[in-house]
Structures are given as structure tokens and as C-alpha cells.
Amino acid sequence: MKFIKNISSRKKTFAVILMASAFLLFLGFYSSHNASAKPDNITVPQSFTSLAESVSPAVVNIRTVKTIKGGGRVFRNFSKSPFDKNDPMRDFFEKFFGEQPQHDFKQKSLGSGFIIDKKGYIVTNNHVVENADKIKVKLKNGNEFDAEVVGMDSYTDIALIKIKSLRNLPATRLGDSDSLKVGQWVVAIGSPFGLEHTVTAGIVSAKGRVIGSGPYDDFIQTDASINPGNSGGPLVNMKGEVIGINTAIIAGGQGIGFAIPINLVRGIINQLKQNGDVTRGWLGVSIQDLSEELAKYYGIKDKSGVLVTEVFPGNPADKAGIQPKDIIIEVDNKKIKKGRDLTTIIANIGVGDVAEIKFLRKGKEKTVKVKIAKREDSKIYAGKLKKDQNDELGIRVSKLTPEIIQKFNIKETKGIIIVSVDPESKASEAGLNSGDIIKEINRKTINTSDDYQREIQKIKKGKSIEILIKRINKGFVVITMTK
Q1: Which of 191, 231, 326, 398 is catalytic?
Q2: Average pLDDT by consecutive 10-residue portion of the chain (483 residues)?
Q3: Which domain holds residue 69?
Q4: How many domains does the chain fold into?
Q5: Could you give the 3-state DSSP secondary structure of residue 408?
């Protein structure tokens, strides 16, 4: 009987082994099948050696010297007499310190760049070479050159410099940053902390980042290590093509760096080569992205489009008939999803060229032709009454007077403004603030206090109210509340 038991247990054990083997074989087949189906860019590269060797000769180290006249503000303040004009110690201080000459202070900085053609044109960041008295460029082979600035663009932080060499110089290849996908491997090459030709690798963490550095923010975010000194160096894809310019880091952050997409840079480089500066198109409007509430208010499902908050008189948009609260959805058949889309497209249209702009006005689609003007950096646009009784919403409104415009520091000249809000009212709970300008109530335009009172009186108690306001430093906002 014992023998039988042993045979039976052996059969069971053998069966278990067979089943386990079959399962492992299945797992191996499944894994190998799915591994072969994975995209190439998911696989971790075994080596970046060949990539680094092919690109590094065209990456340069940039050293600059800037002269701060009179030693700068700190030095001037240090040597200034701390005594009042009538203080007897002033004469003593002036005798020993007042006549000392103000020495110039030399400030040195480091950065990176990359050669884009054999003639010696080098792309870097504007902040690397701005106000520099001397620019030295060092190649990987040790050769050093004096460089001169061809042109700079502070808005995108791009600069083009040039060196002269008797020999043909190695040059980088420019890629297509639009085709870049989140998760793809990239390599940053530069001189962090002066450590020349440092190579770091990572992935594209995000695209289209807006970090508040300027009106044309559209950064590639990467976790490839970027540090001070990397500025101006190339961000390279696995084909060895430059797809970005390493530009910014977050103070105190680790593993977060930002690069300017190379497709944004191409046109700027060409203009700097030809003219030494950059000319941009100008439409003459203030805009904002559509929030979820605004998209719902205007009946736009996908939140695509840009809301016009202000039209500057006498400018191209005004001449073409574009108005505040229009929603721009296309320019020259290019879809406009966010504000930066419109800003970038208009900036890249030639001055004097005519653009076809499609927009929505009260739900209806309209198209106008606009002759684009030149953006001038020096342009500056600037675009209650007796306090009413507290109404049932808990607010007091006023027409816009010069005094109120000055008090709230606003550009609007027409409409009514909320001058105070009862902190325990429905209006306060809904989010209305003092300084908000009421533009519409339940889609009815509000221009005067009478308009406001008339529309409020139409609404029965307990019914919903949608109030379109314009808020200082934010733009249009929809406030929903119950009367």
C-alpha cells in the first residue's frame, strides 16, 4: 500500500511539472512576441558612444567677459558716504574715500553652443553672450577662436555668433522637433560648470511647456541632466540630429531641464543671418486660452480656440473688424488651439503679408483678411459713479470713470465695474471680486448700470445666473450662481 501511495504521488508531481513547464513556455513565447512588437525607442540604448563621437566635434565651449562700469552698483554704494550732508563726519569720510576712482569690474561666464555650418556660424543662447565684451569659442580639438555676434533675439533667448577658421568646421544636423515624442531618448552635450563636452542622456519628459520666460514659451522638457554651463548646447535625438537648444533649469529642481525646439529656432537663425535682428508680425489683440467654463459658456466642446479680450484701436485686427469676445480658431488654415499657437503663427508671418483669420462670433463662423503689421517692442497700449445700493446679489456696481480706472489700474473705458462685494453674500461665495468688470449677464451685453439692473430684475429668484466678467491680470471668467 505504501508503494502505491508513492506511485500516486509521483504521478501527481510529474503532472505538476508538466503543467509548470507548459506555462513557462507560454510566458516565454508571449514575452518574446510582445518584445518584438515594442517600438525601438522604448529599448534602452546599449551605448551612446557613436552618437557622442559624431556630434561632439561640432559642440563648442563659450567663455565671455563682461565689463561692469564703475564696479557695479554694489561697489558704488560701498564707497558712498553714509553720512548726511550736514554731519561733521562727512568731510572726514569724503577726504579718505570720496575721491577714490571707480574701477571697472570684469565678470566672466561660461556657456555652450553648436556649429550649424562649415562657415563658422554658431547657435547659442542670448543670455550667454548678451552684453559681452569678449567671446572666446573653444572646440573639442582644443582650437580657440574669437567670436563676434551676428544677431540676438531676447524674446526666444537665441543668439547667432560667428568664428573664422581656415579649415572647414564640423557642423551639426538639424532635426524635426515637431516629430519628437514624449518618452524618446535624447542626449544633451555641453559644458556644465565649465566641464567641457559633458554628455548626459535621458528622455523627453514633456512637450509644449510654458515656464513664463517669454511670449514664445514652447519648451521641450527632459530629464537629461542640464546644469549651468549647458546653456546654448544641443539636445540631440538618437539619429544625431539637434532637436532643441538647452536653455533653462528650475532653481532647486533636479532632473528637470528645458530646451527650445529647433523648429522654432530655424526661422530666427535665418533672419539673424540676413538682417542681424528678428522682425515679427503683429495682430494687435490681447488674448487668453479658453477655460472649461468659458468653453462651456460659448458652446465649444474641445476648448480649441483663443478668446480675444482686447482689440487695440488702429491696429490690424481692429481694421479687419475683429472684436473683443471673438474666438479665433484658424489662421491661414492652421488650427489654433492655444494662445501660444496664435502668437507663434502671427509672429512668423511677414510684415505686410495678408493672413486669413477664421473666428467665432456669437456661435457663428466668420472669416476676415488681415494685413499683418510689424511688432514694435516700444508700443504701449492703455486701452463708481455714486455707489449703488447693495443689490440682492450682494454687490455694488459703478460705471467706469477716470478716477475708478486709475484706482483699479485697468485698461477698459466702457462698461460697469464691481466696486465692492459683501463678504457674506451669494456673489462673494460664487467668486465675484471687487474690480471685476461685468461684460454679460446670461449672454446679454452689459454696458451701463441700467443694463445690469434690467437683466438682474428679469431673473427670478432661485434661477441660475451666468455672469461673464473681465478680471484684472486674468482675462474673461464665467461666474455661475443662483439668484
Answers
A1: 231
A2: 36 49 49 45 73 94 79 43 50 51 69 94 94 92 94 92 90 95 95 89 91 79 91 95 91 80 92 90 90 90 89 92 95 92 89 95 94 68 37 83 71 82 85 90 88 86 89 87 88
A3: 58-162
A4: 4
A5: helix
